[in-house]
């Protein structure tokens, strides 16, 4: 927290907060994985300076991941960007490259191709995979677009 005139600065890592609070562990996907819901959770919180009690959280993250995930690598295998390293870390460059494939440059390329296409071919552009990906990204946002690792996780099915 900072001076009240500046508002809040800095990031809150909700995944780490969840792990430290004992809600779950880091999975091979790097996501918080809970026993009941697996990686299918969304976290939020309230920042306060109130004195609160707490339980001991997980401190040996790797051991907890190995115990929970075992030898399962489904999330790693299904990642379309091959960004999951399997040890709970993510190659963010690979991830973002895939997520932003239909970002501004992709949209511009698509629109240019659409404008250059003959009228009969334009219908195919509107029904294309690229157009669906652009639409999906516009609706959900790029960072919340890929759920492949969550969909295949057997924990909390």
Low-confidence stretches: none
Sheet/helix structural class: mainly alpha
First and last CA, distance: 38 Å
Strand order of the largest sheet: 1-2
Mean pLDDT: 82
User: What is the CA-atom radius of gyration, in angstroms?
Assistant: 20 Å
Q: What is the strand tally?
A: 2
- What is the general shape? elongated
Strand content: under 5%
Secondary structure tally, helices: 8
What does this structure look like?
By secondary structure, the chain is mostly helical. It has a domain at 1-91. It is built from 8 helices and 2 strands, in the order αββααααααα. The protein has helices at residues 14-20, 61-69, 74-78, 92-99, 104-116, 119-126, 129-140, 148-152; strands spanning 25-26, 32-33. It has a two-stranded antiparallel ribbon. A hairpin with a 5-residue loop joins strand 1 (25-26) and strand 2. The longest helix is centred in the C-terminal third of the chain and has 13 residues, at 104-116. The protein is elongated, with a radius of gyration of 20 Å.
What characteristics describe this protein?
8 helices; 2 strands; 43% helix; single chain; 157 residues; two-stranded antiparallel sheet; mainly alpha
Summarize it:
With 157 residues, the chain is mainly α.
